[in-house]
Amino acid sequence: AQTPVKVTVTGAAGQIGYALLFRIASGQLLGADVPVKLSLLEVPQAVKAAEGTAMELDDCAFPLLSGIEITDDPNVAFAGANVALLVGAMPRKAGMERGDLLEANGGIFGPQGKAINDNAADDIRVLVVGNPANTNALIAQQHAPDVPAERFTAMTRLDHNRALSQLAAKLQVPVTEIKKMTIWGNHSATQYPDLFHAEVGGKIAAEQVDEAWLRDTFIPTVAKRGAAIIEARGASSAASAANAAIDHVFDWVNGTEWTSAAIPSDGSYGVPEGLISSFPVASRGGRWEIIQGLEIDAFSRERIDASVRELVEERDAVRALGLI
Ligand code: NAI
């Protein structure tokens, strides 16, 4: 029988964790023929709740689930891990300055990066979901010098899927008709969902909608969807975030011709090398590649640059705090 793939999930007792773990155990993360072993990392006060979730996982009798481990020790959680989903993070609290937020998350993602460096399997792939996701991924990566830098990624797939859904609704087409959607930049309100390369029925999406809708409705709706969900649900997106994490890892492992992911920049499209920024990407042979050669017009350039500028500021802030 195939050796199980070890998948570590941090923040396992949180709401995204609850929506994510069952789908991983059912085979949706890696494929319906790949056995998995789950490792749940939580803070000590939430270990008991994670144990409760593990009881429910047991009660599903998933054929592909070969074991569950629960711990508050990152060195245990990441030992031999092949996939790490870093979901647990420090949320912004009322009155918290950006520096406080970055510092609190540096205290989580620095040690977790080191634990990955020291304990994970050679083929480790890391997806950071916990916000600020791009910069948390950078912090973890910088504490893992022995892991290839490209294995650290951050999630903009939820933004990508939101963009698909908004455009499909506007044009009254199935989402499957839309190709080449791209989210650029930071997973934040400055992100840029790009319709100038997206295609619907083989034609450029931006040419099938009016400019005012694109600028004043589409872009802000996608960028602020997280806040709209909180407003409606009274809690932040969880099932859709878990779904996007599944999509990201599945495509990374199994390949795709085009999606969006925040990966370390090689300098493409004027994004400073090393920043973990969202790009149009393909996945081939288990590696992300930035799709090259797209023409960027002035409208897009301005918006990509603004989001990348924010990422540079976050990187400089964590540098100044000594977190990387
Ligand atoms: P939640 O608050 O329900 O759960 C977070 C869990 O992480 C808690 O159980 C907490 O105990 C745990 N945790 C905190 N510090 C930890 C540590 N050092 N090690 C292990 N576990 C730790 O939050 P939820 O709703 O599950 O969201 C998690 C994160 O995902 C948040 O940062 C949220 O902003 C982010 N998010 C990102 C999205 C994206 O598109 N990138 C979309 C939606 C949410």
UniProtKB/TrEMBL annotation:
<feature type="binding site">
    <location>
        <begin position="129"/>
        <end position="131"/>
    </location>
    <ligand>
        <name>NAD(+)</name>
    </ligand>
</feature>
<feature type="binding site">
    <location>
        <position position="92"/>
    </location>
    <ligand>
        <name>substrate</name>
    </ligand>
</feature>
<keyword id="KW-0816">Tricarboxylic acid cycle</keyword>
<comment type="function">
    <text>Catalyzes the reversible oxidation of malate to oxaloacetate.</text>
</comment>
<dbReference type="InterPro" id="IPR001252">
    <property type="entry name" value="Malate_DH_AS"/>
</dbReference>
<dbReference type="GO" id="GO:0030060">
    <property type="term" value="F:L-malate dehydrogenase (NAD+) activity"/>
</dbReference>
<dbReference type="Pfam" id="PF00056">
    <property type="entry name" value="Ldh_1_N"/>
</dbReference>
<dbReference type="InterPro" id="IPR015955">
    <property type="entry name" value="Lactate_DH/Glyco_Ohase_4_C"/>
</dbReference>
<dbReference type="InterPro" id="IPR001236">
    <property type="entry name" value="Lactate/malate_DH_N"/>
</dbReference>
<keyword id="KW-0560">Oxidoreductase</keyword>
<dbReference type="GO" id="GO:0006108">
    <property type="term" value="P:malate metabolic process"/>
</dbReference>
<comment type="similarity">
    <text>Belongs to the LDH/MDH superfamily. MDH type 2 family.</text>
</comment>
<feature type="binding site">
    <location>
        <begin position="11"/>
        <end position="17"/>
    </location>
    <ligand>
        <name>NAD(+)</name>
    </ligand>
</feature>
<dbReference type="InterPro" id="IPR001557">
    <property type="entry name" value="L-lactate/malate_DH"/>
</dbReference>
<dbReference type="InterPro" id="IPR022383">
    <property type="entry name" value="Lactate/malate_DH_C"/>
</dbReference>
<dbReference type="GO" id="GO:0006099">
    <property type="term" value="P:tricarboxylic acid cycle"/>
</dbReference>
<dbReference type="InterPro" id="IPR010945">
    <property type="entry name" value="Malate_DH_type2"/>
</dbReference>
<feature type="binding site">
    <location>
        <position position="131"/>
    </location>
    <ligand>
        <name>substrate</name>
    </ligand>
</feature>
<feature type="binding site">
    <location>
        <position position="162"/>
    </location>
    <ligand>
        <name>substrate</name>
    </ligand>
</feature>
<dbReference type="Pfam" id="PF02866">
    <property type="entry name" value="Ldh_1_C"/>
</dbReference>
<keyword id="KW-0520">NAD</keyword>
<feature type="domain" description="Lactate/malate dehydrogenase N-terminal">
    <location>
        <begin position="5"/>
        <end position="147"/>
    </location>
</feature>
<feature type="binding site">
    <location>
        <position position="98"/>
    </location>
    <ligand>
        <name>substrate</name>
    </ligand>
</feature>
<dbReference type="InterPro" id="IPR036291">
    <property type="entry name" value="NAD(P)-bd_dom_sf"/>
</dbReference>
<feature type="binding site">
    <location>
        <position position="112"/>
    </location>
    <ligand>
        <name>NAD(+)</name>
    </ligand>
</feature>
<feature type="binding site">
    <location>
        <position position="105"/>
    </location>
    <ligand>
        <name>NAD(+)</name>
    </ligand>
</feature>
<protein>
    <recommendedName>
        <fullName>Malate dehydrogenase</fullName>
        <ecNumber>1.1.1.37</ecNumber>
    </recommendedName>
</protein>
<feature type="domain" description="Lactate/malate dehydrogenase C-terminal">
    <location>
        <begin position="156"/>
        <end position="317"/>
    </location>
</feature>
<feature type="active site" description="Proton acceptor">
    <location>
        <position position="187"/>
    </location>
</feature>
